[in-house]
Design a protein that fits this description.
By secondary structure, the protein is mainly alpha-helical. It has a domain at about 135-215. About 70% of the residues lie in helices and about 0% in strands. It has 14 helices and no strands. It has helices at about 5-15, 15-25, 30-35, 40-50, 55-75, 80-85, 90-95, 110-120, 140-150, 155-165, 165-175, 180-190, 190-200, 205-215. The longest helix is centred in the first third of the chain and has 17 residues, at about 55-75. The termini are far apart. The relative contact order is 0.05.
Length: about 220
């Protein structure tokens, strides 16, 4: 019985000519050009690799998809790492088969995801991201601030509390200290629903009734 699975053998035969061409090439530039001219073959080389390493059909196709991300951004890129974070079963398989060695235990997932988000949405070159990202000591505050801003608005009480409570972050952002004290902001958040109800009322009688029903 052959050591190579049938699926891998069939794909190897299908692309025999390209494998032979590749073996005859002498430079990285020539090999790169051959791969770029034959994307189906490149996908199938990854299928062969996966089949040879006891992958299920789902893992095989995911390994091909991961390869496309690697080709576009590089194996060590934020995009490639986020792909593995989003596909843990593939990552686990690749580690078990020793196709990958980095288990991701020291990756900073929030930073990786914001890297990818900014590169996609803002068109920022990842090489220049250091100028945009906060120092490590305020990174958690930075991500919390962004989450609150997207959920409640950048002038929300939630964002103002963060600015009022973290001088280092506020200075890094170049923003002023909020006028409202933290204690007042906290109470405003606590009673947000009532404030919103109050703003919708049209008569003094309605406002008075709401106040009387909520003495706290």
């Amino acid at each position: 019985m052959p050591d190579m699975p049938v699926e891998a053998l069939e794909l190897s035969i299908k692309h025999r000519d390209l494998f032979e061409q590749y073996d005859l090439l002498e430079t990285d530039e020539e090999r790169k050009a051959l791969k770029e001219a034959n994307p189906e073959w490149v996908d199938d080389t990854r299928r062969i690799e996966a089949y040879k390493n006891e992958a299920s059909d789902d893992i095989v196709e995911n390994w091909v998809d991961r390869g496309k991300t690697v080709d576009e951004f590089s194996a060590g890129s934020s995009e490639a790492k986020v792909w593995l974070l989003d596909n843990p079963e593939v990552h686990k398989w690749a580690l078990a088969q020793e196709l990958l060695t980095d288990d991701g235990s020291d990756w900073n997932e929030p930073v990786l995801r914001i890297n990818v988000k900014w590169c996609e949405e803002l068109g920022i070159d990842i090489k220049h991201l250091d100028a945009w990202l906060p120092p490590p000591e305020i990174a958690d505050t930075y991500f919390d601030y962004n989450e609150k801003g997207e959920e409640f608005g950048w002038n929300s009480w939630e964002c103002q509390i963060i600015l009022a409570s973290n001088e280092a972050f506020r200075e890094w952002k170049g923003l002023d200290m909020p006028d409202m004290p933290v204690e007042a902001l906290e109470l405003s958040i606590k009673h947000r629903d009532l404030f919103e109800q109050y703003d919708l009322l049209e008569t003094d009688e309605e406002r008075k009734a709401l106040k009387e029903a909520n003495p706290e």
